[in-house]
Amino acid sequence: MNISDKLSSPNWIVFQLIEKCNLRCKMCYQWGDTGSYHEKEKLTTLSFKHVKKIIKDCAGTKPTFGLFGGEPFLHPNVFEIIELIIDQGCYLYAATNGTLIEKYAQELVDSKINRLWVSIDGPQEINDLQRGNGVYKRVMKGIDKLTKLKKATGSKNPELGITYIVTPNNAEHIEDFFFNHINLDDFAGVSIEMQNFATVDNHLDYIEVLNSEFKLKTMAPIASGLVQDPSIFASLDIDRITEQIHKVKILCDSKQIILNTSPKTVSTDNYKNYFSAQWDKMEDRKSHCVFPFIQAEVTATGDVVGCHTFYDLPMGNIYNTDFLDIWNGERWQNLRKFIRKELFSICTSCCSYYYNPSSNY
């Protein structure tokens, strides 16, 4: 079958380039203290040959591409991948912990990648508590070098964005960080997201659905990294979190910086329901999710999945099957039929679920 005979490719294609990470962020559901990759013996790297084929097969419809890991800039061919995507005229972003920005600052400016989303967890003491001693200074040195190079060359790209994940460790420091520790004039976007988590019951229900509806024999080990007892959030001052985010929004608006929040609705009640796992009461709750209809994610092992949360539910593997055949295959059609009827129990653990784009699927 020719590509032209198939349905259009995804609007959004994300590559997990490498499982390897050069940090051990305590709260990360992959690399954290209870993360699913924490004790993993064998780490994998996505094949450049196969990435290249996917890009060329899908570039005609101009999808948005995303790169992440692990740490995507540990992939040996990352700048070849960036060059290929940019040469195809597609929008490209990468999510990074920021520790390699200084090393690759010139290459990043030369590459013309559209945006870097840099994960920073707060002021130096707080950030390093979660990410390791000295990490904050490394990230800030990288941002400073990159910003100076952009100004010297007159380059707009890469635009910079900050991803701030709100956890029990840094929830009191949101306002302080954005007002006193970072120069927002150097940034085009800010994303403030609540820590993802699922309950034990969510995970058990997910396992049951995967085995009964999709005929898998799995204990959903990757999703297990999301499991947390909601009691760890009991000490959060939700009123204060809400107040801080509203202040950051006013600051971003004054500088014409885009602020994304997840959950989208910034309110005390919404956050209380989120952190107490009362997701059925949330203002942002939906009866559907659009991402399996518009997005595909390729993991470092070559598995293709319909969502960042669904690594335990592969639709196929690019080392065995052509990417577009997977995208249009029976297994993916079954996933879409299921999602039209009901959500998975762990969908509420996914930030994207609370910030879905509109769609008429």
UniProtKB/TrEMBL annotation:
Molecular function GO labels: 4 iron, 4 sulfur cluster binding; metal ion binding; oxidoreductase activity
Alphabetic keyword roster: 4Fe-4S, Iron, Iron-sulfur, Metal-binding, Oxidoreductase, S-adenosyl-L-methionine
Superkingdom of the organism of origin: Bacteria
Cofactor names: [4Fe-4S] cluster
Matching CDD domains: Radical_SAM (cd01335), SPASM (cd21109)
Coiled-coil ranges from the UniProt annotation: none
Residue intervals of the Radical SAM core domain: 5-229
Any one Pfam family match given in the protein's UniProt record, by short name: Radical_SAM
InterPro entries: 4Fe4S-binding_SPASM_dom, AdoMet-like_SPASM_containing, Aldolase_TIM, MoaA_NifB_PqqE_Fe-S-bd_CS, Radical_SAM_PqqE_MftC-like, rSAM, rSAM_sf
PANTHER family xref list: PQQA PEPTIDE CYCLASE, RADICAL SAM DOMAIN PROTEIN
Protein name: Radical SAM protein
Organism listed in the record: Pedobacter jejuensis
